[in-house]
Structure formats: structure tokens, C-alpha cells
């Protein structure tokens, strides 16, 4: 049997307000696969902030030595311990790729074991399913693991989904960001349902909600926010601009986001698409932005044109919080994120003509959509309150530590 490494410090553990008996403050090792500030990483930051607010010691390990996420964590008081770690990517899902992945894992193993022995965490909080080595080490060293699942791709072959889900059986508890993510997981791995809980993403709103423009004067300002990849559909947003202009609608598009390192060809293709359509004066590449609120404040309509499954839709929620109409594709988590909000329109994936139709509908009925958007914002702030999210995640982690400590005290 694995020997558990007890890392509980001697500090008092503040009461979480849930009636659970408290004790020494726990130490949490929190891991994330990258140092950017897109969807799942933003939720990781919220989770870390929630645990730090309770007076816990939170040590964060991320493969990259620098990045905007690390800056935010350090500012909040988290301890940074970068370490190499194998991260599952699609390029590894073949024979040669699996061999390379094994090599990365073997090289990362000593560093991760060293961190665990030095930090001596009470629990490991693993963000996303693409960091399997932390789950394996947690089980081998007797450290309970909570894995936060942000993935939900029903279109991925079931065998692949099952293979990716197997390490989750090593986790003590699973947190999922949507009901859709839970359905995808349990379809591939029914045994995981008993240890899973859904906590919808907590999304912070803008410092101030500025109302949409009273009158839409040309050009109509469209916005895309997100990583630049084929699956996110930025190319469909560009094509929608071209279609709108052929219909006599003067529209412009700001693209806020960047490619994943090594995928620079995606941005080159998008820029080529803009040039071929002679849209250089109407499409602007803004790069990555650590805060999206200035762009949302300046836009009229947000486009979320994802082509394949999304486990949730943080970007759509951010636009709703900013009181802006949303045109999003009718897929999985995006539909779940926009349900109940009246200024959102869903269209088919990979259908720029439907995006253009939806934009024209919003423009034609602007006063109505403007009022709807302003009414949606306060409802979204209640549904996705970051404080409630942080508390819910911390409660799950707290319950694991209490369970372990209670078991250790039994005769």
C-alpha cells in the first residue's frame, strides 16, 4: 500500500461556513497544462483564488516558466513551482506520438516527484484531463486527487474518449463544468458518474457595464474572442463579414486571440483569407488580450462560431455580462451557456451564411436586442457569480481533505 505524504501545515484552517469541522489549513498542489489565460485557465485562476481566500497554502505547478496566468497567480499569493509535465495533445494520438509522450513523461517524472515530496500536499487539484501523470503519481503516493474536467467533445471517437478518461478513475473526485461535459464523460466511462459533480463556470463581469449603442451607425462592430484554431471557426466569422458586405451591410470584425505555439500557419491562413476577400480595412487582428472588456465595450455583437463541440462557452457568458448580443453556434456547451438569455441567437456550425443572417436580424431589430441584452446582464451575473464558483470548488477540495484526515484518525 502506498504511504501517504502528510502535508498539513500548523496554521488554523478557517471555517468555510458550511458547518464542517475545521482543523489545520491544508496544502494544495494545483496544476494546469499551460500558462495562458483562455477559458479553462481562467477557471483555474478562479479556483486557486478561492482556495487562497480560505487561508490555504496553494502551490501551483505549470510546465511553462512564464506567462500571464503565472503573473496573476503570483499577484494573488500563490506559490509557483514550474515543472515539466506531459500534456496530452492530438499530435500524440498515434503510434509514434505515444512513444514521444512516454519519453516526455519519463523526463518529467523526477521533477514532479521532487515537487510532491518537497511540498507534501494534502490534495492535488488537476485542471483538465490532459495531465494524466499527476493523477498517476497521486495514486501511487497516496495523495488524493481532484480533477476538474473542462473537456466535452462528443464528436471525438468513443474509443479515444474512453482512453482519455481512464486516468480519471484514479481521482477521488471529479468536477465538471457543464451537464454536457458530464454526459460525454459518463458515455465513455459510466463508472466516473459516482464521483462527479457539476459546477458551472464562475465568470467575472466587466468593472462597469456600458449599455450598447442606442443607434447603430455604420459600421456594425463585430467581435471574435478566442484562440485562433480551425475548430474555433474564426474563418467563418471572416466569411460572414464578406457576405454581409455583399448584402450591403457595412460591418467590421475585430479578432482578439492568438494561436497555440507551433500553429502559426492557422493565423497565416486567416490573414490570407482576409487579403483574398479584400477585407483588410474591415478585419483587424488584435492579438491576445489579458482583459477582454475594452473590446466588448467597443463592439455591438459578439460572434462565437465554433465548429466542433465546446464543453461550455465562457466567451459567450462574458459578452452577456457586458450586455452585448451574442451569435453562437448551436453546439453542446455553447447552447447550455446561452440558454435563458434572450439576446443570444444560435446558428449551425460551419455556416457563415447563418451567422450573417443572424447579424442582420440583430441589426434590423436593434432596439429590441439592445433591451434584451441589458436585461440579460444581471441574470448572468447571478448565475455565474465567481464567489459562488470559488466556494463550490473549495468545498469539494475541503471535503476530500476532511475525509482523508477523518480516516487517518480512525483506530
Any descriptors?
single chain; 411 residues; alpha/beta; seven-stranded parallel sheet; six-stranded parallel sheet; globular
Structure description:
- The protein has 411 residues and is α/β, with parallel strands linked by helices.
- 43% of the residues lie in helices and 14% in strands.
- It has helices at residues 39-53, 68-76, 95-119, 132-140, 158-165, 179-188, 234-246, 264-276, 293-298, 314-321, 332-338, 352-364, 366-383, 386-409, and strands at 27-31, 57-61, 79-80, 123-127, 145-149, 173-176, 196-198, 220-225, 251-256, 283-287, 301-304, 326-329, 344-347.
- A seven-stranded parallel β-sheet has the order 3-2-1-4-5-6-7, sandwiched between helices. Strands 10-9-8-11-12-13 form a six-stranded parallel β-sheet, with helices on both faces.
- Strand 6 (173-176), helix 6 and strand 7 form a beta-alpha-beta unit.
- Helix 5 crosses helix 6.
- The two termini are 18 Å apart.
- Mean pLDDT is 89; it is low at 8-21.
Class by SSE composition: alpha/beta
> What's the overall average pLDDT, rounded?
89
Distance between the termini: 18 Å
Shape: globular
* Radius of gyration computed on alpha carbons: 22 Å
Please provide the ordered H/E string of secondary-structure elements: EHEHEHEHEHEHEEHEHEHEHEHEHHH
How many DSSP-defined strands?
A: 13
Largest sheet: 7 strands, parallel
Strand order, main sheet: write it out. Answer: 3-2-1-4-5-6-7
Number of helices: 14
Low-confidence segments, given as residue ranges, are 8-21
